[in-house]
Amino acid sequence: MAGVRGLYCRRIVRSGALLVTALIAGPATSSRAMQPGTAQWFQAVEQSLMDAIAAGDAAAWDRIMDDQCVVTSEEGEVRPKSAFLKELRPLPPGLQGGIRVRDLTVQEFSGFAVVRFLADEWETVFGQRLTTQYRVTDTFRRADSTWRMVSSHVSVVTTDPPAQKVATDAWTGLAGTYQLLPNGWKFHVVLRDKQLFGGRDPNALKRMIPLTPDAFVREGTLGEWIFVIGADRKATHIVNFRKFEPLVWTRVADDPK
Questions:
Q1: CATH assignment of 7-156?
Q2: CATH class for the region spanning 171-254
Q3: Whether the Cβ atoms of residue 65 and residue 81 lie closer than 8 Å to each other
Q4: N or C, which end of the chain has less CB nearby within 10 Å?
């Protein structure tokens, strides 16, 4: 996770990334009945690994990771086991946190198992509390009487950010119709009851959640919408960052009202 998105990925990114996407060897294609106690074992192991992140307990990870395990972060950083363990450190002063493993499921196959769970994280950063949830998928191979992690992957459970208290007096200059030129989709922005709404369908607009006076997140969607203001205090265009890539919507009409 980047920025303030949580100790889970922040610790993992600093450690070389948590959660891996390595290939599993073997021809198994169908699941088999899970042995008694398997789910409980994985629940305990995964919780111990989550507890070890804030503590920087590399030994806990070393015991369960296969020597060929490769860790890949949400940001795309890739590290072998040795680099991951070397960079795993306790949270620095000023940071505290923990992760609870919830809703764990296990699919056991011949020679390997796929474990999925919700990582429910809390963190305080110099007194400011953050909460984030992640969906985690780990793959283990059977190693005699135990299991070794060979693959893991994490993704953020997305939620709308809290609206910030910002100046709204210039929002009348943001309302209007924008288009992907020369002849692409149109995006409509309207001001209703002192709130901005936007969308391609005028009859299904969503609230624009303010981050700054001219930067927004569209409710229920990913990406930031940044209005670029001209000399007349009207927006000339919107830069919509879609997974870090900019998409430019040019103003083609004012708010019809």
A1: 3.10.450.50
A2: mainly beta
A3: yes
A4: C
Cβ-contact 98, 54 below 8 angstroms:
yes
Query: CA-CA distance, 57 to 68, in Å (whole number)?
Result: 19
pTM for the full model? 0.76
Task: Report the amino acid identity of residue 89.
Answer: R
Find the Cα–Cα–Cα–Cα dihedral 153, 159, 162, 168, rounded to 10°. Answer: 120
Query: How confident is the model over 210-246, as pLDDT tens digits?
Result: 999 999 999 999 899 999 999 999 999 999 998 889 9
Cis peptide before 182 (omega within 30 of 0): yes
**Amino acid in the structure at residue 256:** P
**Alpha carbon distance 85, 82 (integer Å):** 5
**pLDDT tens-place string over residues 17-27:** 333 333 333 33
